[in-house]
Specification:
The chain is α+β, with helices and mostly antiparallel strands. Helix content is about 30%, strand content about 30%. It binds adenosine-5'-triphosphate (ATP) and magnesium ion (MG).
């Protein structure tokens, strides 16, 4: 493409609203244009990158045996009522009415539509397994759209759905997607990790998120420094045995006065013990059921893990009055001894001896408390967030480190959640009707582009991994009024284009410095600089955006050299 006629306008300054690098650089490089909060136009150069991501996704999905469809964006409410999500999905769901006052929504995800499609067309086990996917624009009325297209309201997603006859086969479908996702993100040139993710009430370990490591990531992920274990914070576990300090002989239970000392910090400072010696007792309420949750003093409960304990229901801390009723003391002095409600303890409490708890009496704590002798625990569970350097739960040597990541993809074994509620049944070889076992698999196409920039940039702009780059090469004639220079520039442009290499010819009558700046900002991997000095020897300068290496290449060998660099990278 010729730069002089391209709808591409780079800029030096961008709105202060853009607070992550990828958003700033996309605006500076003229890739996107904001229409409303979380709603963007993709400009030519942005769309070129999106198309590259889509192509890689498509190729790997097809190779994995999935078939492409395109479902409607506007979905009748009936389907969502059938699955039960019309009432559950909340405000992220954009609900609309047609001229007949009928309810519709703009699809934020397509489990309902695909289940309807498959139940209408698949009857027999012979038609399974099946995996259908689409690449489509979704709408979610995100409460806080931000970071440009990274968390937009309208965004492009690849979503795939698998249908199988039984669990074993569904797990095979899942594995195939797990591998396809690895190939996709590898081909995009990204540094990523597949991490175990929470499956909520559906259970099992069949959910992985594909995370790109980046400082600006909204998610925290834990990974082992010795083995392959990696999980997001909602799922990350530690090894309670290795975490526990050495057990001591039980000492005699004692009550101590702790006037006005309520928080972990106040109590442990007053008693001169480390926070890890105290067990805090939190009274939670869910669905009018109360439970005492015990957590080691230096740890924090994870909301999602807590929800799993309460069978998927939201749990909230009991209010002052409720705490008083249950513990006979103001909050800050709750403890497990003598409580009439269920006591559930985080794994970090396992193996603790002679610890401190609240005395269920104002201004009182108990020391040298021991499980079994002083009170019983109904259940141990994984409730607390892991902390940096915690022991790895899988190998016996490693420790966990916490990084920030951006979720690009999510794969999930759904089971029969939708096939049961929406009656997607098939008949097996014996003639019995059974619900299909489903899986769903998403990739944020725009978010992948944004994450690629988060991971690949420098102070001068984007440094595209070659497979995603909108143009692989840019031809930069230093003087557009010089006949010889323009002749070579046109020749190279033609040769490269004929080789199928997307090339930008910067034919503007501009200063060389401005052109270099733009080529750097746009992140084009290969710069071909044509100047008088080089041409005297029949050479052009080839510069790599990543690393900045330069070489002088004979004009006639240039196109082949460019092609070789690209082939090696793709
Ligand atoms: P998040 O936790 O970031 O909101 P999600 O769990 O809601 O993501 P999924 O429903 O699994 O996401 O959607 C599949 C993929 O779609 C995500 O992995 C992500 O890459 C992308 N995605 C989700 N929400 C957005 C958004 N608001 N803007 C851009 N991409 C998104
Ligand atoms: Mg979301």
């Amino acid at each position: 493409m010729r730069r002089s006629s391209m709808f591409l306008y780079t800029r030096k300054e961008v709105s202060s609203e853009a607070d992550v690098v990828s958003h700033q650089l996309m605006l500076k490089a003229g890739m996107i244009d904001k229409l409303a909060a979380g709603i963007y136009t993709l400009l030519p150069i942005g769309l070129m990158v999106i198309e590259n991501v889509k192509r890689i996704v498509k190729e790997e999905m097809d190779r994995a045996g999935a078939q492409e469809v395109l479902m409607p964006s506007v979905i009748p409410a009936e389907l969502w009522q059938e699955s039960g999500r019309w009432d559950k999905y909340g405000k992220e769901l954009l609900r609309i009415k047609d001229r007949h006052d009928r309810d519709f929504c703009y699809g934020p995800t397509h489990e309902e539509v695909i289940t309807d499609l498959v139940r209408k067309n698949v009857r027999s086990y012979r038609q399974l397994p099946l995996n259908l996917y689409q690449i489509q624009t979704k709408f979610r009325d995100e409460i806080r759209p931000r970071f440009g297209i990274m968390r937009g309201r309208e965004f492009i997603m690849k979503d795939a759905y698998s249908f199988d006859v039984d669990d074993q086969s569904a797990e095979e479908s899942y594995r195939i997607m797990y591998e396809a996702y690895h190939k996709i993100f590898k081909r995009c040139g990204l540094n990523f990790r597949a991490v175990e993710a929470d499956t909520g009430q559906i259970g099992g370990s069949f959910s992985h998120e594909f995370m790109v490591l980046a400082q600006s990531g909204e998610d925290a992920i834990a990974s082992c420094d010795k083995c392959d274990y990696a999980a997001n914070m909602e799922k990350a576990r530690t090894d309670a045995k290795r975490l526990a300090s050495k057990p001591e002989d039980n000492k005699g239970l004692e009550s101590v006065e702790t006037p006005n000392k309520k928080s972990v910090e106040e109590v442990t400072a007053f008693l001169k013990v480390p926070a890890g010696r105290l067990v805090k007792t939190l009274i939670f309420k869910s669905d009018n059921r109360f439970a005492a949750i015990l957590i080691r003093g230096d740890r924090q409960a994870n909301e999602v893990k807590l929800k799993d304990i309460f069978a998927g229901n939201e749990a909230v801390l009991a209010n002052e009055e409720e705490v008083k009723k249950i513990t006979a003391a103001p909050s800050g002095f709750s403890g497990p001894i003598g409580l009439k409600i269920d006591i559930i303890a985080d794994n970090s409490v396992k193996g603790m001896t002679n610890f401190v708890v609240g005395g269920n009496k104002k201004d009182t704590h108990l020391i040298n408390v021991n499980i079994g002798r002083d009170f019983e625990i109904k259940q141990f569970a994984d409730i607390a967030n892991i902390e940096d350097s915690d022991p790895c739960p899988l190998c016996d040597k490693g420790h966990l480190k916490i990084d920030r990541g951006i979720e690009l993809g999510h794969i999930f074994k759904l089971g029969t959640k939708y096939s049961e509620s929406m009656k997607a049944y098939y008949t097996d070889a014996e003639g019995t009707e059974k619900p299909m076992i489903m899986g769903c698999y998403g990739i944020g196409v725009g978010r992948t582009m944004a994450a690629a920039i988060e991971q690949n940039h420098d102070e001068n702009g984007i440094v595209w991994p070659i497979p995603l780059a909108p143009f692989k090469a840019t031809v930069i004639p230093l003087n557009t009024n010089h006949e010889g220079i323009m002749e070579v520039a046109e020749k190279l442009y033609k040769e490269l284009t004929e080789l199928g290499i997307e090339t930008l010819l910067d034919d503007r009558e501009d200063r060389a410095g401005a052109k270099f700046k733009d080529a750097d900002l746009l992140g084009i991997p290969i710069h071909l600089i044509i100047g008088e000095r080089g041409l005297k020897e029949g050479k052009v300068e080839l510069k790599l955006r990543a690393g900045g290496e330069k070489e002088m290449v004979p004009v006639d060998a240039t196109a082949a050299r460019v092609k070789a660099i690209i082939v090696e990278a793709i």
